[in-house]
Amino acid sequence: MKLASLFSGGKDSTYAIHAAKKQGHETKCLLSVFPKSDESHLLHHPNMIWTRLQSESMNIPQLTINSNSDQTDDELSLIENLLQDAIAQFQIEGLVHGGIQSKFQKNNFEKICSKLNLSVISPLWDAEPELYMNDLIDSNFEFILTAVSSDGLDDSWLGKIISKYDILSLKHLSEKFAFNLNFEGGEAETFVINCPLFSSSIKINKFQKEWDGYRGRFEIVDAGLNLNA
């Protein structure tokens, strides 16, 4: 099936493309809505501008649109517009997304796709958190934390490439501080710098960290494809 992917550049949306490919589907385009702010309940915010590098590395074209509202209905309308464009340009038959537990997101996406006569592919739905996080590493996904906003996650995690050892540490912290190990609740945001879908890894040349004692963000200031690797 020819699919469009709701794409944020994080581990879940990228791995969903990988999982859909293993199921025999082909992702024809990426759909990225750039949210107005981090107040969005539907969309991923940090470092969205750099998804263009991931699009280039995967050789999958990207359709983008900027949102001027944090209202969910307005954002859903933009997603519907992008899906209509994807149908026209790439003859897509369905949508793949990386939702794991958010029924709010899943129900909204299914409603739009039903209206447009599209199938919905949710390959990560109900994935067991620890198994999923380890499967990411086993599948050669390299990703960093670009935001943290939970007790137990301090600024030392910002920009860190997550390893198997880190998952053990995160599991301990998630049990102690009661956050989702897979960050489904927004406890942290991620950005994929390399995976089997990429022809070239992403090299971060310049960044800046922000930390207020509880919340933090890793902002990529300059990056490029590591074409020599």
Number of strands: 9
CATH architecture name of the largest domain = 3-Layer(aba) Sandwich
Continuous helix count: 6
Largest beta sheet: strand ordering: 3-2-1-4-5
CATH H level of the largest domain: which superfamily? HUPs
Q: Report the structural category.
A: alpha/beta
- Gyration radius (Cα, Å) is 17 Å
Q: Determine the strand fraction and express it as a percent band.
A: 25-35%
Number of domains: 2
Largest sheet: 5 strands, parallel
- How far from one another are the termini? 32 Å
The CATH topology of the largest domain corresponds to Rossmann fold
Structure overview:
The structure is a single chain. Helix 3 packs across helix 4 (103-115). The strands form two sheets. Strands 3-2-1-4-5 form a five-stranded parallel sheet, sandwiched between helices. Strands 7-6-9-8 form a four-stranded antiparallel sheet. The chain contains six helices and nine strands. The chain has helices at residues 11-22, 51-58, 72-90, 103-115, 129-138, 164-177, and strands at 2-6, 26-34, 62-66, 94-96, 119-121, 142-148, 188-194, 202-211, 216-225. The protein folds into two domains: 2-121, 3-Layer(aba) Sandwich (Rossmann fold); 139-225, putative n-type atp pyrophosphatase, domain 2 (Alpha-Beta Complex), CATH 3.90.1490. By secondary structure, it is α/β, with parallel strands linked by helices.
